[in-house]
Amino acid sequence: MNKSLLHTEIQDFINNNLKSDPASLLLKGVPFDTVDSKLIIEQIEAKKRCQKKLPTWFNSENIYYPNKLNIEQTSSEITADFKSKLISGNHIIDLTGGFGVDAFYFSKRVKHVTHCEINSELSEIVSHNFKALNVSNISCLNENGIDALQDINEPLDWIYIDPSRRDNSKQKVFLLADCEPNIETHHDLLLKYSKNVMIKTSPLLDITATLSVLPQVKEIHIVAVNNEVKELLWILERGYIDDTIIKTVNLQSNKSQHFEFNFNHESKVIATLKEPLSYLYEPNSAILKSGGFNMVSDILHIDKLHKHSHLYTSDYLLDFPGRRFKIEKQIPFNKKAFLKENISKANITTRNFPLSVNDIRKKLKVKDGGEIYLFFTTDFNDSKIIIICSKI
After folding, report:
1. Could you tell me where the DSSP H helices lie in the chain?
2. Model-wide pTM > 0.90
3. Which of 1, 74, 168, 298 is the most buried (most CB within 10 A)?
4. pLDDT at site 173
5. Which intervals hold domain PG-1098 ferredoxin-like (predicted)?
6. Taking Cα atoms as reference points, which of 390, 344, 356, 355 lies closest to residue 371?
């Protein structure tokens, strides 16, 4: 950590050049002899990445930024805030602290946070930033989190861990056994030191396969932001033997969409099937990740179009966790029937359909955009259909 980067004139230069092209700046050079120009440009690039993802850091003075990879790997503020609302108590330890965004939000919910980071420079940066952010209830330890855990001599209400999803060659990995620390190896140790453990994993992790190797999972939170799944949160509780509850959330600026169900019940219920009625519903990405398609039908008392289509319909308008549409018309999938509708521009979605969106656009000569929404799908009679909709 080069503290010269925090000098007022350099900070002013960084802030004044956030919209500048990094390559041009590198060629032109910077007006400072005390600091390598590459370091200043790295700060500019890292800070730019924080503008939307980490506005608290971006809008605070004297923040020191790590490399771009650390910024890419850190939680966003919106997901960190969500995580913090799942915990309570006096003490939580973050075993894989990183840039400290999760720890920062945990500090708003518990009396004390221990932030562990094995990278000495990153640990120093985080410690400095917490002071700049006026946070006083976080202790930063520059050591391996698993080692630090075994040295703590006070009760822990929670353990939080976000295993590194890159191998020794910096390639991305997804299975728990391939991440570092290996959760499968350290599972019993974590629950020995705290009754409650929260594990953050990649949204690509297979839920069913992971539950088969990860016991005592009380809840799984599938967290999406603006309909893009960002992370899975696994809540473990010492001695828990009941069914796992899946809790999905789609965080949005105006309101959030929630849906939850018992994971073991999905295979025990059967969705009701019907032809398209007055309204069409498309589940958000968190629900699609959960696989709870029969439970959506069962809990919301709503019909599916087909066992594998994952589109729902009703005669009355529901407050549905996803997109809602008014069905204007249904036609069979063939070029002749479609051309009669005189549609040259539309938003196209496919569900359980043999052609891709691009193939459909080429075949039917439909441009993207406009106020018309077309769903190409399969109904419960296994017929290929087009549903013409307007968005609600």
Report:
1. 8-16, 22-28, 37-53, 55-58, 68-73, 77-84, 101-106, 120-132, 145-151, 183-193, 207-211, 285-290, 293-300, 335-339, 357-364
2. yes
3. 74
4. 66
5. 279-321
6. 390
